[in-house]
Design brief:
Elements (H helix, E strand, L loop, with lengths): L1 E6 L3 H10 L7 E7 L2 H11 L3 E5 L7 H11 L4 E6 L4 H10 L3 E4 L4 H49 L4 H10 L8 E11 L10 H15 L5 E5 L4 E8 L2 H15 L8 E7 L9 H28 L12 H10 L5 H8 L13 H20 L6 H13 L4 H22 L3 H15 L7 H7 L4 H12 L3 H19 L4 H7 L5 H12 L3 H7 L4 H11 L7
Helix pairs in contact: 3-4, 9-12, 9-17, 10-12, 11-14, 12-13, 12-14, 19-20
Length: 549
């Protein structure tokens, strides 16, 4: 309801207007009335009316003076002038002051009510416009802060194709193009221990994140926050040497000692890629690397606490040396290598201390991290880790620790053997499934992952590594390829073809088709020619399990 305040020096007019209109029934609240502008001012301040009805000629402060004051101090209040004067100058002055309506006396209650309704509609329209403008400002503000982050997140997650990424980045004036790419991830997390963690450690973590940003060249990296504790950097350089130098700076943070810190820094580094679509692969590798480094840091922190805050780096086994042996060594040399390698454990107290557990667990986590990087399709990965960690808890002698290391090596070699020719059959099965379901608009990476009994994350990484393109790029290529065939072999409309190849938004399909092929659907149909490069690559990829008839 709109609040109405009346100002007129004639009491009869005030009483007549007050008593002849059923205010609440008509959608208004009658706040009261005043005999002149001076009396009205405190009432306006108190009631904050939406509509002010005022006479012009009044003692002390007339209607024009009152209107001028209200327009200046309460511009949202709509003013309706009532006047018995027909002089044009009054009307012109009133309109210049911005009054909403100028009515001459006498005025019937019906005419006044009609005027109030018109003014009420204007108030509603103004409020709606103000709300829409405010919402638009908020959306623009939100978009300004998050659009870049969403684009980078989607690019890392493999949700958009290279052409889409380039198209969207141009709208944001964001330069994504480069010769080489590598993704770095970092997790800044408060240590779980207790009283030693100060309340302001989050400030320390923000400072550490800032320092890592400073170590990287601001012109050659794009950064976004993936979560409250995780940051992602996409490094882009023109030479391999520049990439190497940047990663050396990252390594300085990664190798930072945990002593005297209230938080841990776990940094993950992906592989260097020479195509934008490889950013997704590098991101998945960086996330895996970061995950295992975080587990390793937690293990080392637990060991630090068990040693009352101090330990020698030499108590740890050489993880890099052991992993290198697993990659190039053979079972025939395992016993000799491990006998020498584990000699550092000969003085370990297995009976009354957990130090031995932490040392072997630290090495085990590094072996698992390396295995996950090399063989992402490992089954029962977490379960195997738990079994080995339980086995470590039972070790009580040096010989038992050596036997455990042989078992760990054999597990790694078993994964290596199983993975040697596993991806080929799986990818053939997966691509056949894609060609059978690409026309479903709801078809997704998760559907494909369920079909081959893998997690979506692992499937995405394997697919990108083995196929040279992301899942979404392969699916898009399949759909556009089919759309090209339909444009050349049928008379179907563009929107019909969009639906037939899995897109329920014809406008999106048309834009995507042009970005991929360089032509609109109309231009392509007139050209009478399929994209030979795409046709050839498609047939080579799917020879043996899909028909093009």
């Amino acid at each position: 309801m709109k609040k109405v305040l009346l100002v007129d020096d004639e009491i009869l007019i005030r009483e007549t207007i007050r008593d002849t209109i059923q205010w609440e029934k008509e959608g208004f609240i009658y706040c009261g009335d005043a005999s002149d502008g001076e009396v009205a001012l405190p009432m306006i301040e108190q009631y904050q009316p939406d509509i002010l009805i005022t006479d012009i000629k009044m003692p002390f402060m007339d209607g024009l003076e009152l209107s001028s004051f209200v327009r200046k101090n309460s511009p949202d209040i709509k003013i309706v002038i009532l006047s018995g004067h027909g002089d044009f100058e009054y009307a012109r002055t009133a309109l210049r002051l911005g009054v909403e309506e100028y009515c001459t006396k006498p005025i019937s209650s019906a005419d006044l009510l009609q005027t109030l309704r018109q003014v009420s509609d204007k108030i509603d329209a103004a409020r709606l416009e103000k709300l829409e403008i405010e919402q638009l400002k908020q959306e623009e503000k939100r978009q300004a802060g998050f659009t870049q982050s969403k684009l980078l997140n989607d690019l890392c997650s493999g949700f958009i194709t290279t052409s889409e990424a380039v198209h969207l980045s141009s709208k944001l004036n964001l330069n994504l193009l480069s010769r080489y790419y590598v993704v770095v991830t970092a997790d800044f997390r408060k240590l779980a221990s207790s009283d030693s963690v100060p309340d302001d450690s989050s400030e320390d973590m923000n400072h550490a994140e800032h320092l890592l940003n400073l170590k990287l060249d601001g012109n050659n990296h794009l950064v976004f926050k993936r979560s409250k504790t995780e940051c992602v950097w996409i490094l882009k350089y023109e030479t391999q040497e520049q990439i190497k130098q940047a990663l050396e700076k990252v390594q300085q943070v990664q190798n930072q000692s945990m002593e005297h810190l209230s938080y841990s820094i776990s940094v993950g580094i992906g592989s260097v890629q020479d195509r934008m679509q490889g950013i997704h692969v590098s991101f998945l590798e960086a996330m895996e690397d970061m995950h295992w480094r975080r587990l390793s840091r937690q293990n080392r922190h637990a060991m630090l606490e068990s040693r009352n805050g101090s330990f020698e780096q030499s108590v740890f086994l050489d993880r890099a040396k052991f992993v290198e042996f697993l990659k190039i060594g053979s079972p025939a040399h395992a016993e000799t290598f491990i006998h020498s390698f584990a000699s550092i454990l000969q003085h370990t107290d297995w009976q009354s201390s957990f130090i031995g557990y932490y040392i072997l667990n630290d090495l085990t986590l590094e072996v698992f991290r390396s295995a996950r990087d090399s063989y992402p399709n490992i089954a029962n990965f977490d379960m195997t880790l738990q079994e080995l960690q339980k086995a470590i808890e039972l070790i009580r002698t040096l010989d038992e620790s050596r036997a455990y290391l042989i078992r760990l090596a054999e597990q790694y070699w078993q994964w290596r053997s199983e993975a040697s020719d596993k991806h080929g059959d799986m990818l053939i099965k997966l691509k056949k499934y894609i060609h059978e379901h690409y026309d479903k608009d709801y078809f997704s990476l998760q559907d494909a992952a369920d079909h081959v009994n893998l997690s979506s994350g692992h499937l995405s990484k394997v697919f990108s590594q083995e196929n040279g393109q992301t899942f979404i790029e392969y699916l898009t290529q399949t759909r556009i390829r089919k759309a090209m065939e339909l444009l050349q072999t049928t008379q179907a409309k563009s929107y019909e073809i969009a639906f037939l190849v899995g897109y329920n938004d014809a406008h999106y399909f048309s834009n995507l088709f042009k970005r991929v092929t360089g032509m609109t659907t109309r231009e392509f149909r007139k050209s009478g020619q399929l994209n030979k490069d795409l046709l050839t690559s498609e047939r080579e990829e799917h020879k043996g399990f899909v028909s093009y008839s």
